[in-house]
C-alpha cells in the first residue's frame, strides 16, 4: 500500500533534516555531545526521523477525519519552498546573534507563524503544529534532566525559546510533505 | 468598492498597453534590459570576491602586548577588536628588508654581477642576526630564546629538506639555497639556475620556494639578467615565538647602525595581525549543499508546470535568468547606495531566490497561453498581462508587506536580508515585465510561425483533419475556431513577411550584403594600421636608421629619438656612451663611428624597449673619465612599505603548513574554535652598498665566458669594418644577449 512508501520517504526526509539541523547547531555550540559523537548523533537522528514520519502520516489522517480536504497550494513547488524556508529559519537561528532571548523568541515565533500562513492556512495544521511543539519540548526537557544531553552554557532560556518554534515549523513542513505524498 | 474597481480597471489598462509595447519591439527592449542589468552589476566589480581571503587588524607597536587568551575579557569595546584576536599569535614575523646595489657600476661588468655580490652578503647578514644577543641586567638573551623553533618538515617534502631549516630557528633567507654556506655559493657557477630549480613549471598560485626564501615576490627581487635599476632586494624572514620588545629594538638599532639607510621612509608604527579564515569543513558544507539541492528541486518543480509553449526549456531558462539577474541587480544597487554586504552571499542566495519565487512567471505564462489563439501575438500578450494584473500587484504588495515586517525585527543581519529581498522583488518585477514578457512574445510568435508553416502546405489539399487537431490542442479555449480551416486571420502585409522563418532571413541578409567579409577586411586594415602606428618592435626607427646611415646627410638625417630628457643631445661627440669599453683609444674615434654606434645603440635600446635607465648613462661623466660608472642610489619609497602584502595569500599558511603548523584550522565537531593568527612586525630596512672590487672578486670564472658584458652587446667585437657588417653584428650581439 502507499502507506509503506510514504513512511519510508518521510523517514528518509526526517533523517536528512535531522542531520542538517544538527550540523547547523554544532556551529552554534549549543549542545555538547558526550564522547561518542557519532552514536549520539545517530540516536538523536533516529528520534527526530521517527517523529517526522509520525507527523507526516498524521496530517493527512487528520485531514480525512475532519473532512476538509486541504486545498491551499497543493503542488510540489510550494512544498520545496516550504522546506527551503524551514531550513532558512534554522540557519538563521543558528548563525545570527540576537541581542536577547526575547528578541530571539519573538522573531522565531513570527517566522514560524509566517511559514504556517504562507504554506498551510488550515486550522488543523495550526493545532497539530502547536501540539507537536509542546510535546516535543516536554520530551526534550525530560531527556535533559535525565542527563542524556547536556547544554554547554547554562542558557536554558535560549533553548526553551528556540526549540518549540523549530518543532512547530518542522511539524508544519513535514505535514506538508506528508499531505503532498498522500495526494 | 468602486475605488478598487477603478484601480483594477486602470491597472488592467496599463498592463494592456505595456503588453502591446513589449510585443511590438522585442529586440530593443531586450537590449534595454540587458543594459540595465549590466549597469546595475557594475558596482559589483568593486566588491572583493566572497570568501576566504585573510583578515587583518593593526595595532600600534608602542606598548604592544599580546591579548589575553580569555575570550570573555573584552575590556569595554576597544575599537573594533575582531573576535579572532584572542590569545597569543602562532608566530611573530620579523622581516629584515635588504636592498643592495653595486656602486659605482663599471661598464664592463656582466649582467650577473648585478646580483651576485649583493647575494653574497646575505651570509654575513644572517650570521650577524643569529649571533645577536642582548646583554642586560637580567643576563644574556640570544636569538635562540625568542625565535620559533621548528621541527621536522612534512614527510612529503623530502626535496626541500636541505633548503628549509629543520630542528632550529625559523630563519629564512636566500642563503638557504646554498645551505648557508659561503663556499658553496662561491662555487656555484649558475646562481639563477640554483634559485629556479624548484620553481614549478606551470602556473603556481600559492607560495613558491623562491618567494618563501626571498620573502618578496619575484619581480621585486631584481635577481634576473634584465635588471636595469641594478638594485637587488631580498628579505631575511625571522619567525619569533615571543614578543620581546627590547631584544627586537636592540636588533633593529644594531642593524641600522651597521648598515644605515639614510633616506629610508619606512614607517615602523604598526603591527599587522593577519587571520586566515577557516577552510570550509564538512560541517558547513553539508547544509550549504542541501540548500542548493532544495533550490534546484524548487526550480525543477516550478518549471515543470510550463506547457503549451514552443520551447519549455527556453522559457524556464528565461525565468531563472530573470530571478538571477534581479538578485544581482539588487546587490549592485545596494552596493551603489553604500551598503556593504556582510552576509555571505553564497549562503543566503537560495533563500533569496525562494523568497522572490518563480510563481509570477508561471502565472504570466499560463494566462498568456490561455488567451484565444486567433488573436495576434501582441494582443494575446496584452490580454494575458491585463488579466493577471490585479493578482500580480496584490501578490507583490503582500510580499513587500511581509518583508517590511521582517525589516522591523531590528536584527542587523535580518534587516540586510530584507533589504536585499525588497530591492530584489522590485527589480524582479521590472525584469518580469520587460524581459520575460518580451521573451514570451518571441516564443509565442515562433509557435505561431511553426503552426503556420505546418498549416500552409497542407492548405493546398484542404485536409479535413486540421480543425480536429487544432481543436484538440486548444481544448481549453472557450472561443472555438470556426470549422473551416482556410480562414486565416492575418493581415496581408505580415503574410508576406512570414514566408521565411526569421533565422533564414537573417542569414540571407548577411549573405546578400557580404557583411561578414567586409567586416573582416575592415578589421584587418584597422589592425594593421594600429600596428604600424604604435610600432612595438621599433621597426620604423630601425628602418629609418638604416636608411640614414647610408645617406651622406650625416647627423641631420637622424630622426630625433625620444630619449629621456637631457641625456643624449644628438651629435655631441664629447658625450661618451657607456657602451664603449673603457679604452681611451676609442675616445678619439672619428665622428662617423661614434654616431653610428650611437644610432645602433639607440636602435638596440629601442628594440629592447628599456629606456629609463639611460638616464643613468652619462651622468657623472662630464669629465669623460672611463672607469667611474654610475652611482646607483638605493631609494626607499612607498612601494616598499609592507612589501609582504604583495605576496600571495597562501604564502604564510603554506610556510607554516610545511612544518605541520596549521593557521586556519577547524576541527569537526569540536566545541571550541581555535582562532589562530600571525603578527607581522614592521620590517627593518638595511641598505648595502658594494664596491666594484668586491663584485670582481666574487665573480665566478665560468661566468666571464658565458655572459657578455652588460649592455655592451657586441661593441667589443666591433671592428672598423663595413657598416653593414656592423649593423649585422650589432644585431647578432643583441640576439646573443637576449638568449638568456
TrEMBL record, chain A:
Which domain of life, per UniProt? Eukaryota
Q: Name one GO biological process term.
A: SREBP-SCAP complex retention in endoplasmic reticulum
**Major location, coarse class?**
endoplasmic reticulum
Key word Cell wall biogenesis/degradation present: no
GO CC, alphabetical = SREBP-SCAP-Insig complex
Does the entry feature the keyword tRNA-binding, yes or no? Answer: no
| One matching Pfam family | INSIG
Ranges annotated as spanning the membrane? 7-26, 38-59, 102-119, 126-145, 157-177
Q: Which family does it belong to?
A: Belongs to the INSIG family.
The record describes the protein's role as: Mediates feedback control of cholesterol synthesis.
The protein's matches in PANTHER family, at most eight in alphabetical order, are given as: INSULIN-INDUCED GENE 1 (PTHR15301), INSULIN-INDUCED GENE 1 PROTEIN (PTHR15301:SF11)
Q: What is this protein called?
A: Insulin-induced gene protein
Task: Specify the species.
Answer: Ibidorhyncha struthersii
Automatic annotation (TrEMBL), chain B:
Looking at the UniProt entry, the stretches that span the membrane are: 20-45, 280-301, 313-339, 351-375, 396-414
Which segments constitute the SSD domain?
284-442
Location of the protein in the cell: Endoplasmic reticulum; Golgi apparatus membrane
Record keywords: Endoplasmic reticulum, Golgi apparatus, Membrane, Repeat, Transmembrane, Transmembrane helix, WD repeat
Q: Which InterPro entries does the record cross-reference, listed alphabetically?
A: HMGCR/SNAP/NPC1-like_SSD, SCAP, SCAP_N, SSD
Q: Which GO terms describe its biological process?
A: regulation of cholesterol biosynthetic process; SREBP signaling pathway
Q: Where is this region: Disordered?
A: 710-740
Coiled-coil residues? none
One MF term in GO for this entry?
A: sterol binding
Q: Name one GO cellular component term.
A: SREBP-SCAP complex
Does this UniProt record's set of keywords contain Protein biosynthesis?
A: no
Query: What protein name applies here?
Result: SCAP protein
The record lists the organism as Ibidorhyncha struthersii
Q: Recall the taxonomic lineage recorded for the source organism.
A: Eukaryota, Metazoa, Chordata, Craniata, Vertebrata
Amino acid at each position: 500500500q502507499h502507506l509503506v512508501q510514504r513512511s519510508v520517504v518521510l523517514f528518509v526526509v526526517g533523517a536528512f533534516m535531522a542531520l542538517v539541523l544538527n550540523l547547523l547547531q554544532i556551529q552554534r555550540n549549543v549542545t555538547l555531545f558526550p564522547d561518542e559523537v557519532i552514536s549520539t548523533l545517530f540516536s538523536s537522528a533516529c528520534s527526530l526521523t521517527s517523529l517526522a514520519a509520525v507527523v507526516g502520516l498524521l496530517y493527512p489522517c487528520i485531514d480525512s477525519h475532519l473532512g476538509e480536504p486541504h486545498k491551499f497550494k497543493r503542488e510540489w513547488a510550494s512544498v520545496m519552498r516550504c522546506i527551503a524556508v524551514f531550513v532558512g529559519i534554522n540557519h538563521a537561528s543558528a548563525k545570527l546573534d540576537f541581542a536577547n532571548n526575547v528578541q530571539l523568541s519573538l522573531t522565531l515565533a513570527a517566522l514560524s507563524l509566517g511559514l504556517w500562513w504562507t504554506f498551510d492556512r488550515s486550522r488543523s495544521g495550526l493545532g497539530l503544529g502547536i501540539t507537536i511543539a509542546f510535546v516535543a519540548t516536554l520530551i526534550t526537557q525530560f531527556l535533559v534532566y535525565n542527563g542524556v544531553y547536556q547544554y554547554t552554557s547554562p542558557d536554558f532560556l535560549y533553548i526553551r525559546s528556540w526549540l518549540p518554534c523549530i518543532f512547530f515549523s518542522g511539524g508544519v513542513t513535514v505535514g506538508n510533505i506528508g499531505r503532498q505524498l498522500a495526494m | 468598492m468602486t475605488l478598487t474597481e477603478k484601480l483594477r480597471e486602470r491597472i488592467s489598462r496599463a498592463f494592456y498597453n505595456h503588453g502591446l509595447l513589449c510585443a511590438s519591439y522585442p529586440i530593443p527592449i531586450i537590449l534595454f534590459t540587458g543594459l540595465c542589468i549590466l549597469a546595475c552589476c557594475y558596482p559589483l566589480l568593486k566588491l572583493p570576491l566572497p570568501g576566504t581571503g585573510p583578515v587583518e587588524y593593526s595595532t600600534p607597536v608602542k606598548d604592544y602586548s599580546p591579548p589575553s587568551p580569555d575570550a570573555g575579557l573584552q575590556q569595554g569595546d576597544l575599537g573594533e577588536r575582531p573576535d579572532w584576536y584572542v590569545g597569543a599569535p602562532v608566530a611573530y614575523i620579523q622581516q629584515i628588508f635588504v636592498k643592495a646595489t653595486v656602486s659605482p657600476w663599471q661598464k664592463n661588468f656582466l649582467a650577473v654581477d648585478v646580483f651576485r655580490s649583493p647575494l653574497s652578503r646575505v651570509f654575513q647578514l644572517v650570521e650577524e642576526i643569529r649571533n645577536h644577543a642582548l646583554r642586560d641586567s637580567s643576563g644574556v638573551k640570544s636569538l635562540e630564546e625568542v625565535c620559533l623553533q621548528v621541527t621536522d618538515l612534512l614527510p612529503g617534502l623530502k626535496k626541500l629538506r636541505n633548503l628549509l631549516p629543520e630542528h632550529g630557528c625559523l630563519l629564512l633567507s636566500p642563503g638557504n639555497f646554498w645551505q648557508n654556506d659561503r663556499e658553496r655559493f662561491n662555487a656555484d657557477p649558475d646562481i639563477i639556475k640554483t634559485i629556479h630549480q624548484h620553481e614549478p613549471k606551470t602556473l603556481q598560485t600559492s607560495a613558491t620556494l623562491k618567494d618563501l626564501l626571498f620573502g618578496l615576490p619575484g619581480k621585486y627581487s631584481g635577481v634576473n639578467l634584465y635588471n636595469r635599476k641594478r638594485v637587488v632586494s631580498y628579505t631575511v624572514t625571522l619567525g619569533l615565538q615571543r614578543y620581546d620588545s627590547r631584544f627586537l629594538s636592540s636588533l633593529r638599532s644594531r642593524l641600522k647602525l651597521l648598515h644605515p639607510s639614510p633616506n629610508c621612509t619606512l614607517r615602523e608604527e604598526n603591527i599587522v595581525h593577519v587571520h586566515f579564515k577557516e577552510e570550509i569543513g564538512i560541517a558547513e558544507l553539508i547544509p550549504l549543499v542541501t540548500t542548493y539541492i532544495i533550490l534546484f528541486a524548487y526550480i525543477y518543480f516550478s518549471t515543470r508546470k510550463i506547457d503549451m509553449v514552443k520551447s519549455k526549456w527556453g522559457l524556464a531558462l528565461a525565468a531563472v535568468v530573470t530571478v538571477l539577474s534581479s538578485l544581482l541587480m539588487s546587490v549592485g544597487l545596494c552596493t551603489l547606495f553604500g551598503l556593504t554586504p556582510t552576509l555571505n552571499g553564497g549562503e543566503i542566495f537560495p533563500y533569496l531566490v525562494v523568497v522572490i519565487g518563480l510563481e509570477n512567471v508561471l502565472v504570466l505564462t499560463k494566462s498568456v497561453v490561455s488567451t484565444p489563439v486567433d488573436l495576434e501575438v501582441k494582443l494575446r500578450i496584452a490580454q494575458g498581462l491585463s488579466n493577471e494584473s490585479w493578482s500580480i500587484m496584490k501578490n507583490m504588495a503582500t510580499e513587500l508587506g511581509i518583508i517590511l515586517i521582517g525589516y522591523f525585527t531590528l536584527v542587523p543581519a535580518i534587516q540586510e536580508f530584507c533589504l536585499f529581498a525588497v530591492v530584489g522583488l522590485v527589480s524582479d518585477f521590472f525584469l518580469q515585465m520587460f524581459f520575460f514578457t518580451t521573451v514570451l512574445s518571441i516564443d509565442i510568435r515562433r509557435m505561431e510561425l511553426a503552426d503556420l508553416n505546418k498549416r500552409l502546405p497542407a492548405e493546398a489539399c484542404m485536409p479535413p483533419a486540421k480543425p480536429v487537431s487544432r481543436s484538440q490542442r486548444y481544448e481549453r479555449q472557450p472561443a472555438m475556431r470556426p470549422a473551416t480551416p482556410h480562414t486565416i486571420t492575418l493581415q496581408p502585409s505580415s503574410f508576406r513577411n512570414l514566408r521565411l522563418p526569421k533565422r533564414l532571413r537573417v542569414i540571407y541578409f548577411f549573405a546578400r550584403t557580404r557583411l561578414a567579409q567586409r567586416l573582416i577586411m575592415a578589421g584587418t586594415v584597422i589592425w594593421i594600421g594600429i600596428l604600424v602606428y604604435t610600432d612595438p618592435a621599433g621597426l620604423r626607427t630601425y628602418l629609418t636608421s638604416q636608411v640614414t646611415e647610408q645617406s651622406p646627410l650625416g647627423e641631420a638625417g637622424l630622426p630625433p629619438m625620444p630619449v629621456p630628457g637631457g641625456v643624449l643631445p644628438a651629435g655631441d661627440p664629447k658625450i661618451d656612451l657607456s657602451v664603449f669599453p673603457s679604452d681611451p683609444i676609442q675616445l678619439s674615434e672619428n665622428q662617423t663611428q661614434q654616431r653610428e654606434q650611437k644610432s645602433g645603440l639607440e636602435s638596440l635600446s629601442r628594440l629592447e624597449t628599456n629606456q629609463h635607465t639611460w638616464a643613468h648613462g652619462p651622468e657623472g661623466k662630464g669629465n669623460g673619465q672611463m672607469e667611474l660608472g654610475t652611482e646607483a642610489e638605493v631609494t626607499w619609497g612607498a612601494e616598499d612599505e609592507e612589501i609582504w602584502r604583495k605576496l600571495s595569500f597562501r604564502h604564510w599558511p603554506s610556510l607554516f603548513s610545511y612544518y605541520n603548523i596549521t593557521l586556519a584550522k577547524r576541527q569537526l565537531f569540536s566545541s571550541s574554535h581555535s582562532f589562530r593568527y600571525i603578527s607581522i612586525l614592521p620590517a627593518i630596512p638595511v641598505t648595502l652598498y658594494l664596491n666594484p672590487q668586491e663584485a670582481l672578486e666574487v665573480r665566478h670564472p665560468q661566468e666571464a665566458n658565458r655572459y657578455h658584458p652588460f649592455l655592451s652587446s657586441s661593441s667589443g667585437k666591433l671592428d672598423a669594418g663595413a657598416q653593414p657588417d656592423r649593423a649585422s653584428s650589432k644585431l647578432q650581439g643583441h640576439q646573443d644577449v637576449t638568449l638568456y
